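Worked problem 6 (solution included).
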Amino acid sequence: MRFVRSLFKLIWVVILLLAAVVDWWVRRPGVGVAGAVWIHGWCQRIVRAIGVEVRVVGELPAYGAVVSNHLSYLDIVLYSAVRPFVMVAKSEVRGWPLVGWLTLRAGTVYVKRGGGPSTYPGVNAAMAEAYRSGLPVLFFPEGTTTDGSGVLPFRRGLFHSALNEGVPLRVAALRYSLEDAGGSVEEDVCWWGDALLAPHLWRLLGLKGIRAEICFGREVRERGDRFVLSEGARGVVMGMYARSGVEAVGEAELVEAL
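Solution. The predicted structure is:
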């Protein structure tokens, strides 16, 4: 039964992705804001096809920067289904078949992991343009995905752009739960470490009762510099997570970072 469920959902998702490409060529909605709005509608369809029940808590952000913890490739699809965002993603995503093409249409800002100071001017310019779009700009400052057992220290680079442009910064916290006793959130919903994408996606599609809760928190007002801003943002995430017993991960446990 799980095999049949995975196969059916995979076929349905592929059909939706191909339909999205056809729809793009017919409608030509444009790149950037129009593209993000267009992607929003298709992500809603994909989330329904995968079978994820999404609950949103708090006020949706209207503009500025939004930071979130990061658990899976599914995160970006869920956030885009909730409302149009300009996303910030690692540069490798741009080269993914079909997905890279779709994210580019939505005006995604691509960041090279470990790019160093030479990449800062280009990233800051791209972020400034994203803020001027009027859509909220979402990024994941942990720099990598986790199994949900903790929130990694936030990488501080992209916080500099929020300070430079004087935009508000809000925090979001994402958590998954699962009714299917045959799977686990940590291994079958969260995608982290050395897990291969294709086998993980196959297992994910075979699950029943996937639930996601996205909590949008308050604006972080402690803005002395990017260090203060990043620590304040992480503190709010941990405060939101305290209700579910998730512990902070110390600096010594950080394995991968931007």
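Discussion: The longest strand covers residues 169-178.
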